[in-house]
Amino acid sequence: MSRSLLVRGARQLLTLRGGSGPRRGAALREPGIIEDGAILIRNGSICEVGPSRRVENLADARDAEQIDAAGRVVMPGFVDSHTHLLFSEVGLDWWEESLAQAETGMPTREELAGAERQKDATPARRLLSRAKRYLNQMLAQGSTTVEAKTGFAVDAASELRMLRVLEQLNGDPLDLIPTYLGAHGITGPEASRPDIYLEWVCGHLLPGLGRREWPCFVDYAAGWTPVQGESVRRYLQTARNLGLSVKLHSGQFPNEHNVATALECGAVSVDHLEFTGAAEIEALARSHIVATLTPAGDFHWPDGRRYAPAREMIDQGVAVALATGFHPRECPSTSMQLVIALACRYLHMSPAEAVAAATINAAHAVQRAFRAGSIESGKDADVLILNVGDYRELAYFAGGNAVWKVLKRGRVVYEEGRIHHGV
Ligand SMILES: [Zn+2]
């Protein structure tokens, strides 16, 4: 028996409808609003979208269960396309010390390696329970699809263990998209022979990933490791030849530019991009690559990190996405709503641009735009109903949570927590 659900009466229904590619330029500013809008959902998929008066009179809508969204904004679930979800320690001592010393730098490679050695020894069940806690926060704040990276490749067994943990988290209820972040925290004897280590990754680990049933992205964090230049290209090309899609961290450090490598290797996205020059922006604008920006990570380092030149990118025609960049040391936020608020203030994006970058363009950054990122017929019914009457409130308020209900494939998976008054 088919199960139908009607969400009706939305003051603003943000569809984010549009062409098949990521939004650029003027298209990024067009949220596709239907006033007094409705969505008809059947078996978890969107089957009709339009004015309430039309949709609620459809034959299929008459017997449907209903959610009254009167006075509220309805929009697609956020796609958080860049997170480092698996870790054991946040590094609070190190962080407090850096505040007291007014240090503004990034964690060093050695500090990260230390954090990751802890992670390496952490039982899978602890990684799993911690990751669940953060995923629940993400869900409650409106993320319905989340990318998560392994990382640091201390050895193959620990990398594969991370992928298995991510596999267990998928679909409960978020969609989780796994990424193998290779050669990130090389420690021990491998650190002095990074090229030999990478040979091993290309010859043994990547072919194994290519054979897995649950495909993952392959990513590389430029600037964090001793592996450079030709070796990085070989690593990413090997992944591509095995049928794996690739991503690249780029431009997190001055004088570290990898956009050319990303172009050569057919990357789906390049991420961070704080240090990005005019020629690279021009090259990105001519490419299919999505530029994923992470302003909450920059916000986390007072005076220490510059923000990516988003305005120039958008004006030149780059397809820009937003993500939290959630990370044990680099970014403490699980909230795409905060990311939108920061993008408007520090990346000089408009609220409409930030919303499109956090939904449809982020879905393109993880190759899920065929089923997520907009409210269009045939896509999964991943829908947010917000406690606001104008979507720009998402950008205006910072640090709160506007979510009333979250639907994942047409099922209510989160409802605003209740406060008991009058005690
Ligand atoms: Zn990252």
Q: What secondary-structure arrangement, pairings included, does this model have?
A:
Blueprint: E1 4-14, E2 33-42, E3 45-51, H1 52-55, H2 59-62, E4 65-68, E5 73-76, E6 78-80, H3 92-100, H4 109-121, H5 124-140, E7 143-149, H6 156-169, E8 175-181, H7 194-210, E9 217-219, H8 229-241, E10 247-250, H9 259-264, E11 269-272, H10 278-285, E12 290-293, H11 295-299, H12 310-316, E13 319-322, H13 336-346, H14 351-358, H15 360-365, E14 383-386, H16 393-396, E15 403-408, E16 411-415
Parallel strand pairs: 1-4, 1-5, 6-7, 7-8, 8-9, 10-11, 11-12, 12-13
Antiparallel strand pairs: 1-2, 2-3, 5-14, 14-15, 15-16
Helix pairs in contact: 5-6, 7-8, 10-12, 13-14
Bound molecules: zinc ion.
